[in-house]
Specification:
Length: 237
């Protein structure tokens, strides 16, 4: 019986890792999830959740596994956005990382550090600690990609509770885009989409007032999005 041919290559093989920029929103500020490294290099430093890819998994599977192992997060919105390949980005060896961004409702998830992470914590985007490796560059690009996606897709609703106030939605847009909007104009634009369900006044006061609550009509949006000539993102500001 003829043996199967096995291929070998003379070129060195770089290692592959994944890193995930996980965004959360608490109603006022945009946050990023970081883990404290338990081992060298950069022991004790804060870093993005991530790690080395196994030989028998995809980068998507690796990213989800590392998130579950290091933070306890699972079944969340996750999308690849860039590959970082600077030759000196990791002091251990030649490492290429595939970066993802993720969107979660931070209040929905209980974080639990594990694997090579000592702690997992949310940090405000404008108050990040010094970071390991080139993770500051990865975060900068992830924030820019988040702004780009917000112009083309209604991804903001992945960061909000199922029912939210117009103030919540406006503060989220302002946190992502780094700008401020006139309250009346913002509300008029959002209501005009016809894709927000009005649930009336909420049951709990927020900021000394009882807000009117809304929800995103996701199914209706998906129907419009699939129709020929349908609007790309009516929530674009």
């Amino acid at each position: 019986m003829e043996e199967k041919t096995k291929y070998t290559y003379k070129y060195p093989h770089p290692a592959v890792t994944t890193d995930s920029v996980v965004f959360g929103f608490d109603g006022r500020y945009l946050h990023i999830l970081l883990v404290e490294r338990r081992s060298e290099p950069y022991k004790g430093c804060w870093a993005l959740p991530g790690g080395f890819m196994y030989i028998d998994e995809t980068v998507e599977e690796c990213a989800m596994r590392e998130l579950a192992e290091e933070t306890g997060l699972a079944n969340i919105f996750l999308e690849q956005f860039h590959v970082f390949s600077s030759v000196d980005r990791d002091p251990r060896e030649r490492v290429i990382t595939v970066a993802f961004y993720a969107l979660v409702r931070s209040s929905d998830y209980k974080l639990m550090a594990g694997d090579d992470a000592a702690r997992a914590c949310w940090f405000r985007c404008d108050e990040l600690p010094p970071l390991a490796f080139d993770h500051d560059k990865i975060i900068d690009m992830a924030r820019e990609r988040l702004r780009e996606k917000l112009r083309t897709r209604p991804i903001a609703f992945n960061l909000l509770d199922e029912k939210f106030s117009m103030g919540d939605l406006q503060r989220l847009y302002e946190a992502i885009n780094g700008t401020s909007y006139d309250r009346r104009n913002f509300q008029r634009k959002m209501i005009s989409t016809g894709l927000l369900e009005d649930h009336g006044l909420g049951s709990e006061p927020r900021h000394n007032r009882i807000p009117e609550l809304y929800s995103f009509k996701e199914e209706e949006y998906n129907k419009l999005h699939k129709e020929p000539g349908g609007r790309r993102n009516p929530f674009d500001m």
